[in-house]
Amino acid sequence: MTESGQKFKIFKFLKIMISSFLIIILLLFTVASIRTFSLDVNAGLQLANWEKTKNISLVIDHHQREELIANFKEAIRIPTVSFSGTESNNTALLEFNRLLRKAFPTVFSSKLVHHQLVANYSHLFWLQGSQPDLAPYLLLAHIDVVPASESDGWEAPPFSAKEIDGFIYGRGTIDDKGSVMGILQALEYLLIKGYAPRRGFYIGLGHDEEVGGYKGALNIVPMLKQHGVQLSFVLDEGLAVLDDVISGLEGPAALIGITEKGSATVKLSVSMAPGHSSMPPRETSIGILAAAVKRLEENPMPRLFGHGPERGTFEHLAHKFRLPMKFIMSNLWLFSPLLGRVLERKPDTNAFVRTTTAVTMFNAGVKVNIIPSLAEAYVNLRIHSAQSLQEVLDLVRSTVGDQRVKIELVDGFDPLPVSSADEQSFGFQIIKKTVLDMFPTITVAPGICIGNTDSRHFKDLTSDIYRFAPVWFKPGDAKRCQFWSQQTLHLSLGLTEGQTCG
């Protein structure tokens, strides 16, 4: 074959390849464009026979509103602090129990409500439904808070419940006394109006969620198991309403957490013979450990965006973005790698992309001229839904890659199972439609909790655990402790009433 013939064949081959490539690109663009303008995340979500058919109207007069706010402020002023798994402010917990009885007399006196104290400070309420064949649900919240002091930069003392520009400041306003008081206040009003549920439900209030819930929630679970209870779903704190927080999203969005990341605390330690700074060895325990920590920080866990339920979050929100983001969000089957690279650039969105690694404690040395024999570091990892605890531990060991560094798992657990969020999901849809009743202009989407709650202890009692509280966040509010009493109350009222229709 002549040289010109060979060139012609090569040219023809390249032409075919380029044409094929362009055709594929055109097909992908056509499919993606059709999906962008036809994607309906609410398809099939018509009213079903288990949803509420009537509302119990809520009219709060000025006196009731003032009383509600006063009770909430009193709840914030009680420092129900959990310091550790073995130490809490028991005096404050007893005081909080007295407040609940004073603030909600109908709840504690009604013949419809069965109340039990759990582990001295937690509470379990049970309202039996008129149709016992309907599986009950559980509303979960917690009484305790983490420590706080004015030196942390508070604009008002953390247990003052001081009101500034319409916001109530205090530890626990969001996490989680807003839910505690909102749920019980809603039930109080419903009972006063003669409410009696068709579907039974439980209310669980733990007193040690901030340190794992091993006395509160973990003791409530066997009590339910003892009576053979299987729950339809659990609703706990978690995600919220985000208004102008997600860049490019038009309008507020309520994210309902359908899972939460796993967690692991890993201890790294290096032991060597002690020495003096005047005759230092080539490598010290601190230097070896610091190098190991640096390797963990410079080699993050693999990017896993699109391999977990986070893809559903963005697809549910796609129609609220403008082009070109709408095009990308609607076609994550094609653009997941691209969006994952964008999200990993910021710490707050990087958490949705991978298992995060945070060095939180580093301990070594007692004197400036003594080389310590022992250096320790603690690393906290929040595990992506597509990974397991064991996979993460294996990656930590391979990244550290130094036999001199001892690696120990202090505690940890796998990511929680993903709860259902389709049109057949009773729990998700009743929460979603209750939110839309309260806030009709909101977009509702499934989400992922990057923090942890004690709802994980209930996973043997239900396959559906949801994490949402009706707190309305605007830009900058994450740095502020705020409480929206009316919203929490309305949502709690809607849920308890909504579940009555079987």
TrEMBL record:
Residues that hold Zn(2+) 2 according to the record: D175, E210
Catalytic residue list: D144, E209
GO terms of biological process kind: amide biosynthetic process; amide catabolic process; amino acid metabolic process; proteolysis
Superkingdom in the source lineage: Eukaryota
Pfam families in the record: M20_dimer, Peptidase_M20
Positions with a binding annotation for Zn(2+) 1: H142, D175, E237
Catalytic activity: N-(9Z-octadecenoyl)-L-leucine + H2O = L-leucine + (9Z)-octadecenoate; N-octadecanoyl-L-phenylalanine + H2O = octadecanoate + L-phenylalanine; an N-acyl-aromatic L-alpha-amino acid + H2O = an aromatic L-alpha-amino acid + a carboxylate; (9Z)-octadecenoate + glycine = N-(9Z-octadecenoyl)glycine + H2O
Keyword Isomerase assigned: no
Official protein name in the record: Peptidase M20 domain containing 1, tandem duplicate 1
Organism: Seriola dumerili
